[in-house]
Every structure is written in C-alpha cells, then in structure tokens.
From TrEMBL:
Role of this protein: Catalyzes xyloglucan endohydrolysis (XEH) and/or endotransglycosylation (XET). Cleaves and religates xyloglucan polymers, an essential constituent of the primary cell wall, and thereby participates in cell wall construction of growing tissues.
Organism: Riccia fluitans
GO biological process terms held by the UniProt record: cell wall organization
Entry keyword Secreted: yes
The keyword Transport is assigned to this record: no
Post-translational modification summary for this protein: Contains at least one intrachain disulfide bond essential for its enzymatic activity.
Domain (GH16): residue spans on this chain: 26-220
Protein name, UniProt field: Xyloglucan endotransglucosylase/hydrolase
Amino acid sequence: MGSKMKLALAVLCFASLSVSVARAGDYFWDDFYPNFGDWMLLYPGDETDSGKIVNLCMDNSTGSGFRSKYPYLFGRLGMKIKLPAGDSSGVVSSFYMASRYEKWSELDFEFLGNWTHEPVVLQTNVFSEGIGQREQRITLWFDPSEDYHFYGILWNQKLILFLVDDTVIRVFHRSTDLGIPYLDYQPMYMYSSIWAGEDWATCGGTRKTDWSMAPFTASYTDFETNGCVVHPDYPDLSPCYQNVTTSYVYGNNAVSQLSEKQVQDLKTVQYNYLIYDYCTDVERNPTPPAECAINWPQYFSG
Ligand SMILES: *[C@@H]1O[C@H](CO)[C@@H](O)[C@H](O)[C@H]1NC(C)=O
Ligand SMILES: *[C@@H]1O[C@H](CO)[C@@H](O)[C@H](O)[C@H]1NC(C)=O
Ligand SMILES: *[C@@H]1O[C@H](CO)[C@@H](O)[C@H](O)[C@H]1NC(C)=O
C-alpha cells in the first residue's frame, strides 16, 4: 500500500471516529465488547448472522455485561431487548449510558424482574455531575419478556428523551438556567448488563431470586448507535455541537420541542403507567426538584 493511500485511510478512519453515524442492526462486535462475565455472553445464530443477537446470562456465580467501544456525545442510542422469561424476581437487566469522569453523567434503564405474570418494572434515572436520585418507575403496556422492544435515548443539546419503541416515557430538558447541570460536555459509553439485585429490586427486596431457575437470560439485538462518536484519546467535542446535515437528532438543528404525539405519550405514561416519581415523593423531596416543573406536560403545554 502506498504511503499516500495509507495517509488517506488514516484520515478517513480518524474522520469516521470523530463523527460517525452508524447504522441500526450492526453486528454486536462492530461497536461493543464484553466488559464482565464474558463467558456468560452467548451469540446465538449461524455463521452468517452470529453477532446480530447477544444473550447476557446470569447464574449464582456471576452476571454479565457489555460496553460500547467508544463514547458518544449526543445521538439516538439504544437497542432492542427481550427480558428473562418466567420467574425473574431479583434479576436486574439494564441498558444505560455513563461517562467516566469523577462527576459523571448517567442515563439509566433498569428492568426489575418479577414473579411470572407479575409486572416487570422499568426504572429510569438521570445523573448530572454525579447526582442522581431522579428515579421514575413505570410498568409497561406489554410483556417485555415475550418479545424484543426498543429501549433507547434521543440526546442532544436541548433535551433527552427516554424511548420505549416509538413512545416517549420521559423527558429531561436542558435547565441550566435553574442551576441544574446539563449532560452536554461529557461523552458517555453505552452499557448493558444483567446482575443480581435481590436485596432491593423486587417488592422492596422481600422477594428473592429463585436460583433454581438460573441461568437467567436477557437478549439484546438491533443495536442503534446513531450518535456522535468521540475518540477517547482525542476528545474533540466540537463536531458534536455543529449541525449535522443528515440528522435532526443532534447539532444546531436538533429537535428542541416535543411533538404533539410525544406530549400525549408522556401524559398517557404519567396517568396510566407511572408507579413512582421522585418529583412527587414528598418524603424525599418536600418541595419538588426544580427541573420537575419543566419535564412533565401539564407544565410545558399549559
Ligand atoms: C450455584 O448453583 C449450582 C447449580 O445449581 C449449585 O451446585 C451451587 O451449589 C450453587 N452455589 C451457591 C454458592 O449457591
Ligand atoms: C412485582 O409484582 C408486584 C405484585 O403485582 C408489584 O406490586 C410490584 O410492583 C412488581 N414489581 C416490583 C419491582 O416489585
Ligand atoms: C448550519 O447552521 C448554520 C446556522 O444555523 C446555517 O447558516 C448553515 O446553513 C447550516 N449548514 C448546514 C450545512 O446545514
């Protein structure tokens, strides 16, 4: 290979690391690798489609998990997940985004397993500068162990949407004017895991895991990494703030307001599926945290 060619390739590779828009449905190992319990990761499928699905298993010795190769700043990031079937009390399956600085950013989807036919609870949380305690819990309108559903975030300079399929279940608006740090300067990695949470997860920890049902398996597929990739060693964030012509997801032209349908989604979730909200937990928060007033529709749609 001539040196000009090499140079051209190097430039290409670097450019694609700085701002790359990956396709949905990539192979697992294009964008991810196991980060714990790697002997408990399974890749069902034959030679041609092995890697389209990854199963995370847990037994009484360990859970397992994976992580994205690179961190992202903004994007539409998520994957389809099918939760463990049957009695999954105390089993926590997750997809989350997290940065690696001391005062970190984090966005969580945690699925709290339950007895067979009893509702799995989805807990979400937002950490900015290391401070979380913004838990919301909902039940879902389908059985998440029966089939794959998309769980992901749309994250840009103005807002963060938590998505379940095409439904917005939560929004976190930029509210730096209220003194709340926004998640706009720390790139975050994507993580997924299955782990033991029998001390707290199901019915407040009173329902323990039935280990005779192990291994528990959460299955992940259709990885969506449509985001601004940041090289961990050369964290030039500026491309992520600029307008990216092919996408309204992030950049100068990013969506900053919810559509009418999305506002309606939030109302439906709030009235029919919300079972815990830190905004209304008066024991923990005698006055609701400031951002609550801009993140629920009754406040922002009049
Ligand atoms: C874990 O499960 C295996 C298989 O069911 C069992 O033989 C073993 O004793 C268990 N270990 C612990 C520490 O419970
Ligand atoms: C598990 O099922 C019980 C009974 O239906 C329900 O009260 C609880 O909220 C469910 N989820 C969790 C995480 O405890
Ligand atoms: C980027 O945004 C600027 C200012 O909003 C605008 O003038 C310019 O036309 C945009 N460029 C593209 C390629 O969208």
